[in-house]
Design brief:
three-stranded antiparallel β-sheet, three-stranded mixed β-sheet, 460 residues, 4 domains, Lysozyme, alpha+beta, 10 strands
């Protein structure tokens, strides 16, 4: 039986957020770009699988939490490889999103690759690294397998089945009319693999759309060669046990120094569980300049902040928010004697590792520090996402990645900005860093108290 990640799923609602009967299988369903019609017998078979998936609430909620955390990363890879987004449900069918899953036939990892196939699709499998256990690397290999199959079959449903049977094994299930079809019928004689896939979609699509259970988001960050997972977790302020569970691909004690680039999955540092929601989340809007009173909190990146007023000092703004100066300086990444910028937000919670907005074009005069503050995101995350060095200037027009790592094979992008000259896609030389200064200690009781601050200062 596959084990779920209990430490990553702390805080799941004790009273089920999925109360009620299992979803009912419809007579028609749109999947993988095709309109599928299910006859009565097929619906009964799929419904039996749906009921089985929903039988144990705790297990179902744990899988939904894993799916919520993993799907943004999977979706990005599928989109880059031009594979329909519905194939996200195939990883649930193959491994229940368990990187260490192993079949009796020797298939391993999220997408259940055998060693030979994994090597054929560019995955590293040796004594130090097994990328079958790496979420995004194995997803890309699976997407390329699917794309290659679909180039022959011209039908994503048959391509789905080929993932289980191979191109030769799928032939008895295909018909000439299937090529480039927009509609297909699903019957009791259809492959159980297809029926099971439909059941996964019927269960997990609405649950994830409704955000029915809380979960801890994941982010992908560059791995540093020569360091252990524990050392990397410490540098990212992440839970080392969680980082170890999310990165079963690393078999050696440290990340190999072999010239290849690897990435780590980490739980979003400092983020609480995202609570269950009765409806879909609205698309994230970019933070904008806010006219606020001196005592009213604003929310940026779902964090509480006060907008600095003319003449505000760090000590004054910290006091207005009920925080010590040391805590305020630390969460806002301020150096000693640094002046506040009137109209800029300053936070009373730890900033996040990712912004709600995916990208930002650097405006004339903007620094990386100002951008990190504007979006409520940690400066070191922006450095990592964009392969920049601390203290390195960001030229106007540079497209900054705010929520995930820019692949190293994707060149830095520049866009025209009024009043500036075009910039070539290269990094400017780093500027000298100021000497570090001591900061006040922050105790755990204050951290806990700050997290309970109201949305408005009392007496406002």
């Amino acid at each position: 039986m596959k084990k779920l990640f209990p430490a990553l799923l702390l805080g799941l609602a004790s009273r089920s957020a999925l109360a009620g009967p299992p979803p009912t299988v419809p007579s028609t369903i749109d999947a993988m770009g095709l309109h599928l019609t299910l006859d009565y017998e097929a619906r009964q078979l799929v419904q039996a699988k749906v009921n089985s998936l929903c039988r144990h609430n705790a297990s179902l909620e744990a899988r939904i939490a894993l799916a919520e955390a993993a799907f943004p990363l999977i979706d990005q890879v599928l989109a880059e490889e031009n594979v329909p987004a519905d194939f996200r449900y195939l990883v649930l069918q193959e491994s229940a999103l368990q990187g260490n899953a192993t079949s009796k036939h020797g298939a391993v990892g999220y997408w259940q690759f055998k060693r030979e196939t994994a090597l054929d699709y560019g995955l590293t499998v040796d004594g130090s690294v097994d990328e079958r256990r790496h979420l995004t690397a194995s997803t890309r290999a699976a997407a390329r397998y699917l794309t290659r199959s679909n180039a022959s079959l011209h039908n994503w449903v048959n391509t789905l089945l080929s993932y289980n049977l191979g191109l030769g094994g799928v032939q008895p299930y295909t018909r000439p009319a299937d090529a480039d079809a927009s509609r297909m019928s699903v019957t009791a004689s259809s492959s159980v693999y297809i029926l099971d896939f439909i059941a996964q979609k019927v269960v997990f699509e609405p649950a994830c759309a409704q955000h029915a259970v809380p979960f801890v988001p994941w982010r992908e960050v560059p791995a540093t060669p020569g360091l252990s997972l524990a050392q990397q977790a410490a540098s990212l302020s992440a839970d080392p046990a969680a980082v170890a569970r999310l990165n079963p691909w690393l078999l050696a004690a440290t990340v190999p120094q072999n010239g290849r680039s690897y990435t780590l999955l980490v739980p979003l540092a400092g983020a609480p569980l995202l609570a269950a929601s009765p409806g879909p989340r609205r698309p994230a809007a970019a933070p904008v300049a806010v006219a606020a009173s001196a005592t009213s909190y604003v929310r940026i990146n779902d964090l509480r902040a006060l907008v600095a007023q003319p003449g505000d000092t760090p000590a004054a703004l910290a006091a207005r928010g009920g925080a010590s100066l040391g805590f305020f300086m630390k969460v806002n990444e301020l150096s000693r004697n640094e002046l506040l910028i009137p109209g800029a937000p300053y936070f009373f919670e730890r900033k996040r590792e990712a912004a709600e907005q995916e990208y930002h074009v650097v405006a004339p005069g903007q620094s990386l520090t100002a951008i990190a503050q504007h979006f409520g995101v940690l400066r070191h995350a922006l450095l990592a996402y964009n392969h920049l060095h601390l203290g390195e200037a960001v030229p106007p027009g540079l497209v900054l990645w705010l929520a995930h790592v820019r692949p190293r094979n994707v060149a830095a992008e520049y866009r025209p900005v009024p009043g500036t000259h075009p910039v070539v896609a290269q990094r400017p030389a780093p500027t000298p860093l100021p000497a570090p200064v001591a900061e006040e200690e922050v105790d755990e009781e204050e951290l806990a108290a700050i997290s309970e601050l109201p949305t408005e200062v009392p007496g406002a």
